[in-house]
Design brief:
Helix content: 25-40%
Number of strands: 13
Radius of gyration: 32 Å
Number of helices: 10
Order of helices and strands: EEHHEHHEEHHEEHEEEEEHEHH
Distance between the termini: 31 Å
CATH topology of the largest domain: Alpha-Beta Plaits
Number of domains: 3
Structural class: alpha+beta
Largest sheet: 5 strands, antiparallel
Shape: elongated
CATH superfamily of the largest domain: Multidrug efflux transporter AcrB pore domain like
Length: 334
């Protein structure tokens, strides 16, 4: 929708790769005319939205947080209408890999692949342990050194940045500079030792308070509120949710094929299972519908024969019922 006081009757070609701004030039004498513009979009709007979000995420700096998937799902469709399809579980039977490793492996190698399967609304990890640098502050040491939690947060944010670098001796430069130098700086902190050496404060007498003096730093998971286990073995659930108009059986089959393909690249001692799935319920429901329909036709045939007392006369209404049952799905399509 183009918000303006006029309407231009025209047709534009579909967007190629990027969305472009369309400019409409109108003379002042034509402001009272009614104009409209038809801008066709190829494909599903929800798919287009996710593609644009992925494009934007690739342009963001690593320091920026990516758009939350829950917000994207809420915009792209009614999340409350999406139903759980199945929940594969990633485990390590001999406990070679902990939950943090399994969670991040699923995040980097499985989640996006399953989200691209036709019929899948979104994929969510339960019991996820995203890698995070955990800083455990010691209140007693902080009180003795006069450091607050806000000071620690501020200093970590200030020193854990990507500083701009450049070159020295490039034009424009003063005369007499014989050489050029490339400036290299330390980027974002990557391990616990670098975090431990963050300077919190420095006194005039030369005393320096570092982060390791008031806290314990370790690489762990960002959230420990949910723990998932299968037969006592910790792991991570991969929740797969259907789109409202998706076919449950077709989606389950495609998800199973995708998981089998991904499992071929699993590291040793990593397996997956499907402890929860709605597919058996759907399959059994369809079988029961067929059985119920057959039983109903038998009962109808017996009742008709009971009243007509003739198999020949019974055959005619039974053929009519059979024809109606066959063409009923076609009638529903229209």
């Amino acid at each position: 929708t183009i918000g303006c006081s006029f309407q231009l009757e025209a047709s534009y070609d579909a967007f190629e790769q990027d969305f472009k701004m369309i400019q409409i030039d109108v003379d002042a004498a034509e402001m009272n005319k009614k104009r409209s513009a038809d801008i066709p979009l190829l494909g599903d709007a929800k798919v287009i939205l996710r593609q644009l979000v992925e494009t934007v995420k690739a342009m963001l700096p690593k320091a920026r947080l990516a758009p939350k998937q829950d917000v994207i799902d809420a915009i792209a469709g009614e999340q409350k209408a999406w139903l759980e399809q199945c929940m594969p579980m990633l485990t390590s039977p001999d406990r070679r890999y902990d939950t943090t490793f399994l969670s991040n492996y699923a995040l980097l190698n499985i989640q996006d692949a399953l989200a691209r399967v036709k019929g899948v609304g979104f994929v969510r990890l339960f019991g996820a342990r995203d890698y995070s640098m955990r800083i455990w502050l010691d209140p007693d040491k902080m009180a003795r050194l006069g450091v607050s939690a806000g000071d620690v947060q501020r200093v970590v944010q200030e020193q854990n940045v990507v500083a701009p670098a450049g070159r020295i001796g490039v034009p424009p430069m003063p005369a007499g500079v014989p050489m050029q130098y490339s400036v290299t700086v330390q980027g974002r902190l990557t391990d616990a030792t670098q975090y431990e050496n963050i300077v919190i404060s420095a006194a005039t007498n030369g005393q320096i308070v570092r982060l390791k003096d008031i806290a314990r730093i370790e690489l762990g998971g960002a959230d420990y509120s949910i723990t998932v286990k299968e037969n006592g073995v910790p792991g991570v659930f991969i929740g797969i949710f259907l789109q409202p108009d998706a076919n449950a059986l077709d989606t389950a089959r495609d998800v199973s094929r995708t998981m089998e393909m991904l499992a071929q690249r699993f590291p040793p001692s990593m397996v997956y299972s499907v402890p929860y799935s709605t597919t058996p319920f759907v399959t059994e429901s369809m079988k029961e519908v067929v059985i119920t329909l057959f039983e109903a036709m038998v009962l109808v045939m017996l009742v008709v024969y009971l009243f007509l007392q003739s198999w020949r006369a019974t055959l005619i209404p039974m053929l009519v019922v059979l024809c109606l049952v066959i063409i009923f799905p076609d009638i529903c399509l229209f």
